[in-house]
Each structure stands twice: as C-alpha cells, then as structure tokens.
Design brief:
Blueprint (H helix, E strand, L loop, with lengths): L11 E6 L7 E11 L6 H9 L6 E2 L11 E2 L6 E4 L7 E14 L2 E20 L18 E21 L7 E12 L1
Parallel strand pairs: 5-8
Antiparallel strand pairs: 1-2, 2-6, 3-4, 6-7, 7-8, 8-9
C-alpha cells in the first residue's frame, strides 16, 4: 500500500503593470507552485508489481513463448515503493514585457524559470557493488524502488511577434530558447 500525499499547498500570484501613459507597454510577472498527479496510477502499479516476479525465457517460441523456449535460471526481481512518496511539484517564475510597436503589431519577450521537486525516479537498490560486482541481496536480481527524489531545472526565453488587427495578414510568430536538466 502506498499512502497518498494530501498536504499540498499551491499558492500563485501574478501582476501586470503599464509603466507609460500610452499603455502600449505592459510588464508582467508571476510565481506559483504547481502539483502533479501520479501518472498511470504509479502507486497502484507499484503495489501490483510487488506481488509479481519476472521470468526470463531464452529463445522464445511464437506465438507461445514457452514453446521451444527455455526458462533462464535467474533470480526474481522486485519493484517496491520508497517509505515516503511525495507528490511531484514545480515552482515557476516568469517575468516579461510586451510592446505594441505599431497599431496591431506587438513584440514580446519573457523569461521563465521552473524548478521541479519530488519527481519520480526508479532506482535499482540492489545494483552490484562497484568494488565486488556482487549484489547486496543475493536472493534477487534487481530491486527497483520508486522514489520521489528527482529534481529538474528549466530556463526559457520566449520571444514573440504578433499582429492582431489592421489591414493585411494576421499572425503570431514565436520562438522558445530553453534548456532543461534533470537528475
């Protein structure tokens, strides 16, 4: 059984400001905390897989893998949940400026930083020790533990040109330059 994390608080705040009387420029920004839902029912999948073992069939037959195949003499693997599973979350920060350069044509630039916390990781806690090549628990091959210990860092610069009114074609062209790192 994997308990749900029910103590999440997700505040958000945003603001806009028009610094000039012409109101052709707007400065905007915001910050917020966002929580994810466990995709594909991870908690349920962990519980279900903890009740099963893996079997390796060498040279499987078709359509019946056991026909003509042999079961490898391997030890079982397990999937378990970490003692505490947190809800994955992110903190997002943004700051941008949009300017109407001529009637109906605007240019915008925004900077966005997002930090991810408590992301799902699947760690083999029974991996062979580097010094000896021997697994800590000899009764199993892999012991995959789902944890919420992952982190991510993302930075993005968004640039846009938008034509919303006037004579001629209407368009919105944007470009995102970004980088994301995850452990």
């Amino acid at each position: 059984h994997v308990d749900q994390d029910l103590n999440n608080f997700a505040p958000r705040i945003g603001a806009t400001w028009t610094p000039f009387a012409s109101a052709r420029t707007v400065v905007r920004g915001g910050v917020g905390t966002y929580y994810d839902q466990g995709f594909n029912n991870i908690s349920g999948n962990i519980s279900n897989s903890a009740r099963s073992t893996n079997v390796t069939v060498l040279n499987p037959g078709f359509p019946d893998p056991y026909a003509g195949g042999t079961i490898a003499a391997t030890k079982p693997s397990l999937t378990v949940a970490a003692p505490a599973i947190e809800t994955p979350s992110s903190r997002a920060f943004s700051l941008g400026v949009k300017r109407e350069v001529t009637t109906g044509l605007a240019v915008g630039i925004d900077a966005v930083r997002t930090l991810g916390y408590d992301l799902f990781n699947a760690i083999d806690t029974n991996a062979p020790l580097p010094a000896t090549g021997i697994r800590p628990n000899l009764d199993y091959l892999r012991v995959v533990q789902y944890q919420t210990t992952g982190r991510s860092w993302s930075n993005a610069l968004l640039v846009s040109v938008e034509r919303r009114s006037g004579r001629g074609p209407l368009f919105n062209v944007s470009y995102t330059f970004s980088r994301q790192i995850r452990n």
